[in-house]
Please model this.
Amino acid sequence: ETATFTGGGWALKSSATYAAYYPYNFYNRDLKNIPVSYEGQTQNGNASTAHIGAYDFMAASVSTPENGAVSFDMQHLGCLVQLTVDLDEAATINEVSIKYGEENSGEFITNGYIDLSSQTPAIQASSQEDKSNTISIVLENLSVTAEEAATVYFMMPPINLEGKTIDVTVAMDGGDTKTYQTAGKDYIAGKAYAISVTDNAEKPAYTMVDLGLPSGILWADRNVGADSPED
Model:
């Protein structure tokens, strides 16, 4: 969340400003053009979050040193999404994709950059070619039984899809696909969201409740594993 740096053997200049970003790459040191990409997200196993760090882009706006040290307030620039898919059958899932808009409409920023010299760094697109109407997540070693749900985690850029309809497509072994429709939300940087789709009419999808907490934490509408809020 926060970090404080000193210059070590080199004094931090009070006349200079400093910025920080994550994940760091030694070769990306153009403060006005730190590249980011949401392509290539791959999850290994069910409900794994091991891949998220490489796509959880963070940045701290420029700061001036005080007393020989500089403090960075790191901000998440993207959104974390938990997608739960209940197929109501045994299956091996190879990929899921989130789609909004027509082909080549460019709704999601899939490749872009961060300008660290800005007072409020954000993910930006250089051109329409940096945008896509689809974000895809490749899945490895993800097989479920008829009683299990698949849980997929991925990062995506902030986007306001409130009042819009999102298509969720699940690709399985053998070439079979299933597409579901769900209501979009205003996906805000630094927050986590849940999307649930199901083939089981007796098992309603989970929804998330925003209690307006300062932390931004969302609450489920029922206990984990429960089939209804009353349970």
Remarks:
- The mean pLDDT is 89.
- The longest strand covers residues 91-99.
